[in-house]
Amino acid sequence: MKSAWADRDAAALVAHGAKSGVDADLALRVYTTRLLGRDPKLVLHGGGNTSVKSHMRDRLGEDVEVLRVKATGADMAMIEPAGLPAVRLAPMRRLRALDAVGDVELVGIERANLIDPAAPLPSVEMMLHAFLPQKFIDHTHATAVLSVVDQPDGEKKCADVFAGRLAFVPYVMPGFGLAKKAIDVFERSEPSDGLILSKHGIVTFGENAREAYERMIEMVSLAEDFIARSRKTVAAVAPVRNSAALADVAPIVRGACSVKDEKTEGAWRRLVVEFRTSDAIGQFVNGKDLGRLSQAGVVTPDHTIRTKNWPLVLPQPQPGKLGEFARLAREAAKAFTVRYHQYFETNNKRAGGIKHELDPLPRVVLVSGLGLFGLGRSKRDALIAADIAEAWVEGVGDAEAIGRFESISEADMFDCEYWPLEQAKLAPTLASSAGGGGLGRGLPLAGQIAAITGAGGAIGAATARAFAAAGADVALLDVNFSAAREQAEAIGPLALPVKCDVTEAASVRAAFDAVATAFGGVDIVVSNAGAAWQGRIGEVDEEILRKSFELNFYGHQRVAQAAIKIMLAQATGGCLLFNVSKQAVNPGANFGPYGLPKAALLALMRQYALDYGADGIRANAVNADRIRSGLLSADMIASRSKARGVSETDYMRGNLLGREVTADDVAQAFLHQALALKTTADVTTVDGGNIAAAMR
Ligand SMILES: [Zn+2]
Description:
Helix content is 44%, strand content 14%. By secondary structure, the protein is an alpha/beta fold. The strands form four sheets. It has a seven-stranded mixed beta sheet with strand order 3-2-1-4-7-6-5, with helices on both faces. The chain has a seven-stranded parallel beta sheet with strand order 16-15-14-17-18-19-20, sandwiched between helices. α6 crosses α15 (379-402), α20 (505-519) runs parallel beside α21 (542-570) and α21 (542-570) packs parallel to α22 (592-612). It binds zinc ion. The site of zinc ion (ZN) has 6 residues, from loops.
C-alpha cells in the first residue's frame, strides 16, 4: 500500500480552507481523512474515523481546546470540515474518572459540549480520540490488519508484524469502555506509533496529518507484506461449472429472503440485491471450508449492522433444476430466520430483555458455483452489504492463508448489532438519499423493484419518479435508450436505464434479465409503452392494424409474461399495471387501430387478474386521457384545438372538472394501484371527467 499524499493537493486544500476560515490543521485533517476513506482496503461505508485536537474561539470569543472528530456514520471519502464536529476537549477528558457512562448519557454529554449544538453527532469512537493525547489520530478497519489480528494468536502475530510499534488493546466493545481500555494500555506501553484494537482495527498517531496518515499506510503495508510472505500455498479450487444463469437464480434468492408482513395481509418485507463474483469469491464459495468459514463471524464488529453475523449459504443452482434449488433456498432461508430469532432471544435475555428484534432476513447470501449477494432495503444498502461482504471474504481468506480466522464471540457480535449507537448509523441521512430509492427504509415501496416501460416518455418518466420517491428502486425501460438514461439520471445514479423494444420478444427477455440481474427481481411492472395509429376501420391497411396490435397489445403481453416469470420465481406476489388509455373504453372516430388493441389490453389485464390472483399477483389499469406526451404533442394540441375552435388551454381542460390532467396525475394513479393490496382487475380513470369514457 502506497501513500497517496501529494504536496500539491494538500496545499490546495489548505489554501481553499483559508478562504472560508478553515485552519491548516483542519484542512489537512480533511485531506488525509479523504485519502483514507477512498481506499476500500482501509475503510468502507462510514467505518473508521479520524480526529485532530486544536483550539478555536467559542461564541463568547474565548479560546477553547477542542477535539474535531468525524461525525458518526459520515463517509470519510467525501468528508467536509462540517463533517468533523468540534467538541470541548477538557470536559470529555474528565469523564475518564468514571467507571462507565451509559450510551444515552454519553450522547447527551457529547451534545452538550459541541461548540455548534446543531452539528452532527461525533463518532461512536469519539472518547478514544479524546482520551489519547496525540494531536492527529487515524483509525481504520484495514482488511490486511484484520487478517493478522483476527487469529487465536493475534497478539503474538501483531507483535511480530509491527515489531512492537503498536500497543495491543484486547477486545472491548467500541465506545466508552474501549476508550478507557485503550488509554490504559497506551499509558502502560512504550512510546508507540499507535494501537491494535484486537478483532477490530488499527489506530495510528501523529503530530501532524501526514505523519498519522503515513504511519497508517506503513503499518497496513507491514501487514500486507506479512500476509504475502506467510501465505500457505493453497491448492486452487477447480471452478464449479454449469451453474444456472444469474438472472434466473437471483429472483429465487430474493424471494427466499423475504418474509410476509404479519401486520398487513398481502404485504411482504422484501430486499433488493447486489451480486458480486471474483476469483476470491469463487475460491471462497466453492472451497472445502465454506461450511466452517461462512459461520465464523465478522472481521470487525461494526460490519454486523450491514451484513449480520453470518451469511445464508446456498448450494449450487444447476441449470434445469431450479425448482429443486428454490425449495432448498426457501428451507435454508427459513432455517436462517429461525436461527436468527434464537440468537436474538438468547442474547436479549442476557441483555435484560430490553432490545427489539431486527428483521431476521439475511444480508449476505453465498451461492456455490455462482458468487455472493449483498441484500438491503434499497439498492444502496445492498451495495454496501456487498462491499462489506467482499472485504469479509478477503479478510477471512487471508487470515486462513496465514493461520486460522477467529472472530469475536456471538455475545460480542450481538452487543454491537444491537448497540443503539450503531443502529443510529442506519438512520436515513442526506448522504444516503442520492440514488433513487436510497432513502427507502421508511417509505411505502421500500425494498420493492419497479420496472416501467416507455419510461423515456412523459407518463413513464413521471411514474418512475413517483415510484422512486415512494422508496422503490426503479428500472426505466425504453426503446430509446438515451431517453431512458436521461430520465434515470434525473432520478439518481442507482436508477437503471434499460433498452427494451416491447415488439421484440428477445429484447423484452433481455431487458427483464437485466433488471433481475441488477436488482434481483421485480415486484411492480408498469406496462406503459405505446403509440397511436389512426385510420377508418373499414378502409385501414391491415398492416397498420397489425403494427398497432404488435405494440399496443402484444407488447404488453410480452412484458407481462416476462414479469410473471420473475414474480412466480420470487413467490412473493407482485403487481402488473397497464396503461390502457381512454380508447379502451370510449373509442374515438378513426382511432380503431389504436383503440382496438387497447380494448384487448383491458381484457388482458382482467385475464392476468383472474389467472394469477391466487399467486398474489394483482393486475390493474389506468384509463387516462389528454395528457401532454409523445402521443399528444404540442403540434397535435395546436391543430386539434384549432379544429375545434377552442384555445389550447380550453382544449386541454375539456373535461367535467375543467382541469388539465398531467403525467404526474397518471403516475399517482399507478402508485395508488401499486399500494392498494386488496385491489385487482381495477381500472382507475384519470381524465378530469368524461362520462362517455366512465367505467360502467
Ligand atoms: Zn472502529
